[in-house]
Amino acid sequence: MLKQRTIKKPVYASGIGLHSGKKVNIHFLPHHSDGGIIFRRIDLQPAIELPAKAMLIQEAFMCSNLVKDEVKVGTIEHLMSAIAGLGIDNLLIEVDAPELPIMDGSAEPFLYLLLQGELIEQDAAKKFIRIKKPITVQIEDKVATFEPFNGFELNFSIDFDHPAFDKQHQSTTIAFSTANFMAQISTARTFGFMKDLEYLQANNLALGANLENAIGLDEHGVVNAEGLRFVDEFVRHKVLDAVGDLYLLGHQIIAKFTAFKSGHALNNQLLRAVMADKTNYEIVTFYDEKSCPIAYLPLG
């Protein structure tokens, strides 16, 4: 059978919180089979655990935030994207702040850290959620849809009227696999407009934002001296966010995901729509890698 995955050994790291601007320590620890992805706030006494579940997303302005009994762990989407990309099923994440470190604004540093923990298989079947019928959610002109599909395909379109956003590079399609995620998605950075920064910081947001952890945009274009990592880095980052947001369903999804101008809030609404009717999906397992429609990094 295709087995669940965790890491073999602990990994420790630190970074700056995007919104707090303060140092955040983060620890990645092995977790037992069927344990899922768990965040643990170790700065609290007693420590509080928050499972990475869609129903715990109560704040989705600018980032995805888990909230339980007024305890929060925020900006989880880039790490969740890396976890999904590597096919990790079970992981304990200790953090000593209400948000995760932003690192370089992409998922690549988290991929590196998790791989340092050495992926191992566990003696339990890896579970997937197969979408059985079309499901659509919409907020004004923003739309997100799941359709039955043998694999996980992401189709994303953005719509920005700005000199930095070339019209022909505002849509992309990704056939999800570990190899494609690492090569095409993981390094795409978050982005923001310089004109919004003063307002955000006045409201205690984006206090840690800088050109080392985000793409900055002024009225003319990209401010970062090194430019973009891809000509379509903006829409690729939206796919990165979506991979992380959608993994909050609890298992890897088998479906076609199509989105227009979707963000964290709409992605979460789509997951809630899936869970609202059990006939929307089924839990499936696979005998081996060859029978699974999603290709993960080989182990061993």
Annotation keywords:
lpxc deacetylase, domain 1; seven-stranded mixed sheet; globular; alpha+beta; 6 helices; 21% helix; 2 domains; Ribosomal Protein S5, domain 2; five-stranded mixed sheet; 300 residues
What does this structure look like?
Helices cover 21% and strands 31% of the residues. The protein has 300 residues and is of the alpha+beta class. The chain folds into 2 domains: 3-125, 2-Layer Sandwich (Ribosomal Protein S5, domain 2); 128-291, lpxc deacetylase, domain 2 (lpxc deacetylase, domain 1), CATH 3.30.1700.10. The strands form 5 sheets. Strands 11, 12, 13, 14, 15, 18 and 19 form a 7-stranded mixed beta sheet that branches. Strands 2-3-9-4-5 form a 5-stranded mixed beta sheet, with helices on one face. A hairpin with a 2-residue loop joins strand 12 and strand 13 (142-147). It is globular. The relative contact order is 0.21.
Summarize the structure.
The chain has 300 residues and is of the alpha+beta class. The protein has helices spanning 77-86, 108-116, 178-185, 194-202, 233-246, 264-275, and strands at residues 3-7, 11-16, 23-29, 37-41, 48-51, 57-59, 65-68, 71-73, 91-95, 119-125, 128-131, 135-139, 142-147, 152-157, 171-175, 191-193, 215-217, 252-260, 281-284.
